[in-house]
Description:
The protein is α/β, with parallel strands linked by helices. The protein is 30% helix and 17% strand.
Amino acid sequence: MRWDNLGDRPDGSADAPAAGEAALFGTDAVTTRTFDTPEFRGITFHEVRARSILNRVPGASRMPFEWTVNPYRGCTHACVYCFARKTHSYLDLDTGIGFDTQIVVKVNAPELLRRQLASPRWQGAHVAMGTNVDCYQRAEGRYRLMPGIIEALRDRANPFSILTKGTLILRDLDLLRQSAEVTDVGVSVSVGFTDRELWRTVEPGTPAPERRLDVVRALGDAGIGCGVLMAPVVPFLGDRPEQLRATVQAIAEAGATSVTPLVLHLRPGAREWFMAWLGEHHPHLVRRYEALYAAGAYAPTWYQRRITRQVHEFAAEFGIGPAGRGASRRITRPAREEAPPDGTAEPTQLTLL
C-alpha cells in the first residue's frame, strides 16, 4: 500500500505529489484495525494522522464550491456508481471491493481543521462536506469525527454545507442549530430513486430511500430546511416517467425544500466497476450504456435535459420548486433575527452539479 507518496490534490482527491510537495501522511502515521462486530465485519480501517484537511477545488471544476473537507476515504455505502472510487487507486488499493471495505480514517481531522481555520491565510470560504465520500457513513458511528468538525466550523462562524445519504446526521442536530446561529449552513440528502429493488443492488450499504426521506422530514420538523439531490437518476433502470414521478412525490411529501436531479455519470474507476455490475445484473443493457456514454463520463445533453424537465414538471405538480443551480436551502435563522418577507431562506450551493 502506498502511503508515503500520497499528496494533496486541489480537487479533494489524492495522487502522487509533485516535487517538493509534502505527503498527506507517512507510513509511521498509519494504524490498521478491524472490529469484530456485525456492522463492521469484513471492513478494515486505516487510521491516519493527516497533514492537511482543507482541500481546494480547481477553478475549472464543475463543482459549485471551492473548498471541501473529507474525513474518510473509501465508503461502506458501496454504491456501485460512486465517482470517488478512483481515489483508492492512488493508495494502490482496489477501486471495487477495496473501496467498499478498506476505509481510511483521518482521526485527527477535527483538531487539524480547527488549526487550519485559525490560520491568518484562511479567509472563511464556504466548506462543502460529503462531496467525495459520505461523511456520515457507518464508520462515523464509531469514530465520531463530524461533531468536532462542525464545532470547529461553528466556533469560527465559517459557512458550510453537508450532503449525505446517512441517517446519522440526526445525531448532530444540536450542533447544526448552533452553527446556524452564527453562519450559513446548508443540508441536503441524496435520494435518486425510491425503487427498493434498485436500491438493494446499486446502493447496498446505504439506509433505504424511505429512511433517508425520514431524515429530510426530521430535519424539517426541527426547523432545518433540507433539499434533496435526486441522484443518481439511473438510465433505463430508474428513469421511467412513473418512477421519476413517484420519487418526486415522496420527496415532496417528506417536506424537502427543493429537488435537484442529477443523471448518473461514470468516471474512470467507477465506470469499470459499474459496467461489471451491469453485465452481471442487467446484461441486456450493456450495449445501451456503451452507446449512451460513448462520448465520456456524462450522458448526452439531450438526455440530461429530458430528465431535468420531467423532474421539474413533477416538482411543480407536487408543489416543490427546483433549487437554483445545485442549491439547497440553508438552515432557518433563530426567530430573534429578521426573516425574509416571504418566509423563505437564501440558497447555499451544495450539490455536485
